Amino acid sequence: MAEKKQDGIWETIKTIFWALIIAGVFRTLFFQPFWIPTGSMKDTLLIGDFLFVNKMAYGYSRYSCPFSSCPISGRLLGSEPERGDVVVFRHPSLGTDYVKRLIGLPGDKIQVTNGILFINGEEAKQVPDGTFEEIKQAQGRFATFPQCANSPVGQGGTCIKEKAIETLPNGVTHSVLNVRNTRLDNTNVFTVPDGEYFFMGDNRDNSTDSRVSPNAGGVGFVPAEYLLGRADRVMFSAAGKRLFYFWTWRYDRFFKAIE
Fold first, then answer.
1. What is the pTM for the complete model shown?
2. Which of 164, 222, 233, 248 would be 240's cystine partner, CB 3.0–4.6 Å?
């Protein structure tokens, strides 16, 4: 009886071991789960959206493996990302994962003037598209409150942001939000170095991105090896602080394509 019990325990251990190996391989080579923790990509991505990052899109680097443990120099089987892709990448100095929209490719000149994006001197035209509205309440596991263009707004009130549809030079269109005039609405010209990329959040006035250097608390230019993959589709979404708060599930966002 004791021998059968030991055999059963050993089989359980082996099953768990191989399950972890398979999960690790799947996460490394194919898709990595990612929760949206902040509002920097509203309204394309909302706090509480859950997605799988397509790691096959841009190939693999040392950062593709858990704990940045892949023995890879540069990128392996890499393909070039496209302007307008929504990308998950490793912050060059903090070691945390960020999700932003790819705006600048190597060699591009990027500038923001009066809140309008210019790429190589060409305006990314914005067409007003009404407003984005949400309830002023704590959101997600960090319990952050949204910023509102119609401030002051009391808790439980309607928080409003101006919304526009922006068209990038390659024809990619996406939503951008405006809260207020900030210092990042007017920038110097950024020239993207070879092998690096420039990212911005769609919630332009509430995004830590390439417009600010890492030394000043931003992201700066992101080297190609730090790209983890492309975000293609929201698989699940919950507005509450916990996944099992089923009454906060956003069913209309399940399996929603990311544009």
1. 0.87
2. 248
For residue 31, how many other CB atoms are within 10 A of its CB?
17
Q: How many domains does the chain have?
A: 1
Q: What is the pLDDT of residues 57-70, one digit of tens each?
A: 898 888 777 666 67
Rounded to whole angstroms, how far apart are CA atoms 85 and 75?
Answer: 18
pLDDT for 76 equals: 72
DSSP code of residue 249: B
Pairing of strands 109-113, 97-104: unpaired
Are the CB atoms for 87 and 232 separated by under 8 Å?
no
Q: What would the pLDDT profile of 154-209 be if each residue is shown by its tens digit?
A: 999 999 999 999 999 999 999 999 999 999 999 999 999 999 999 999 999 999 99
Q: Longest Cα pair distance anywhere in the chain, in angstroms?
A: 78
The domain that holds 45 is classified in CATH as 2.10.109.10
What are the distances in angstroms from CA 208 to CA 86, 199, 211, 216?
A: 15, 9, 8, 10
